[in-house]
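Q: Predict the bound structure with acetyl coenzyme *A.
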Amino acid sequence: MTHLRSVVLGCGSYLPARILSNDELAKSVETTDEWIVQRTGIRERHIAAAGELTSDLALHAARAALVNAHVEASSIDLIVLATSTPDQTFPATAVSVQAGLGITHGAAFDLQAVCSGFVYALSVVDALLKSGGFKRALVIGAETFSRILDWNDRTTCVLFGDGAGALVLEVQPQPGTTADRGILTAHLRSDGRFKSKLYVDGGPSSTQTVGHLRMEGRDVFKHAIAMITDVIDDAFKATGTSAADIDWFVPHQANKRIIDGSAHKLGIAPDKVVITVDRHGNTSAASIPLALADAVADRRIKRGNLILLEAMGGGFTWGSALLRW
Ligand code: ACO
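A: Predicted complex:
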């Protein structure tokens, strides 16, 4: 019996031209390259130019993904864009991307789950594609976190960067085994009791301002590895797979120590882990598709590879997805 799967046709990414190094940051806040690298693994991040919006980054990434997938924009009937830094409160940034691509049919909307946004978006798109209502989707993670940082707060401003990544997915019949191409399973979690551990201190309903990112970093760190490994265990159980079956682990890129700790706890070898946090910083919902595009571009990720994704972020939200490329 055949089984419908959401299969990746291609991916693409975009990073703003401006690179901000740790040494440059250390000229404006009291920090050092050594502190940032040792605590986080971050060496530099990209920062959007004045007037360069989340939708601009997303559109570049979407176009790159369409080229990589060898499909026309007109064949896309669903766009889901994960972001916490939309161009405006509304309309959704996804409709700007839709218009930029010249698409006038289908549906486009934003999804907000902070750093878990891309895994959430992937899971929602998977369900919508398998429902039969849509055939080919763009899933985008795009952020301009530089716009919501308090650049005087050294405990947060050193951690984040801007960027965007996108995947093209198509629903296809597959045999219905773990050897299938496409998304094999996805698991989403949240627990709002932790909502004040990582948040933005503004919003349309509360302050009528955009606000700045605030984080109790130590508390986030304390919970991260257990949450990440729990939800990955759910993915392994659902598919009867284990760490040994994974070709590439592509985690949300928040902190090298969290990534290393999670991989170690799961028994995933360091040479199977895709790392971009050193060059991108934490780009929130954009970090996973940016890392995927990196590993596809340098031919580490190949068709047929089993890829494990995970993310954890504000809310707290967290999630995992297992897919065969
Ligand atoms: N440069 C120099 N010193 C600093 C800096 C800095 N940039 N930031 C903080 N410090 C100081 C602190 O003030 C503190 O000084 P004190 O001991 O005199 O009080 C000291 O360094 C240690 O601070 P801690 O907060 O304990 O440092 P820690 O080792 O926990 O590292 C970090 C901080 C990197 C933020 C870590 O806690 C972390 O990575 N947390 C998780 C963040 C994360 O993963 N977020 C993911 C989700 S993101 C999302 O969803 C949007």
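A: The two ends are 21 Å apart (CA to CA).
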